[in-house]
């Protein structure tokens, strides 16, 4: 996926006139092995924190089985 084409000055002016403003965002690269490892580490830490706090009984054990059902 490449960069989107740049807007012309007229297109930019029209969008600004209509109340829009340009925004650039940076998001984590989900394809990065380092990102996936860190996400897995954080998820496991969250599970462990919930377990230590006694929150596991609040989770419905059958919920995972029903996740993909319509």
Element-level helix/strand string? HHH
Tell me, what's the shape?
A: elongated
Q: Any idea what the radius of gyration is?
A: 22 Å
Q: For the residues shown, what is the average pLDDT? A: 88
Largest sheet: none
Q: Beta fraction of the residues? A: under 5%
Helices, by number, come to: 3
Got a strand count? 0
Q: Tell me the structural class.
A: mainly alpha
Show unreliable segments. none
Termini Cα gap: 32 Å
Helix content: 40-55%
Characterise the protein shown here.
It comes from Aliirhizobium smilacinae. This is DUF3018 family protein. Pfam families: MazE-like (PF11455). 47% of the residues lie in helices and 0% in strands. The chain has a domain at 29-57. It has 70 residues and is mainly alpha-helical. The protein has helices spanning 9-17, 33-52, 63-66.
């Amino acid at each position: 996926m490449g960069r989107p084409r740049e807007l012309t000055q007229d297109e930019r002016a029209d969008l600004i006139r209509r109340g829009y403003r340009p925004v650039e965002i940076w998001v984590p690269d989900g394809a990065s092995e380092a990102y996936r490892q860190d996400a897995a580490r954080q998820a496991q830490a969250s599970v462990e924190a919930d377990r230590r706090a006694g929150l596991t009984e609040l989770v419905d054990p059958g919920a995972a089985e029903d996740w993909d059902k319509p």
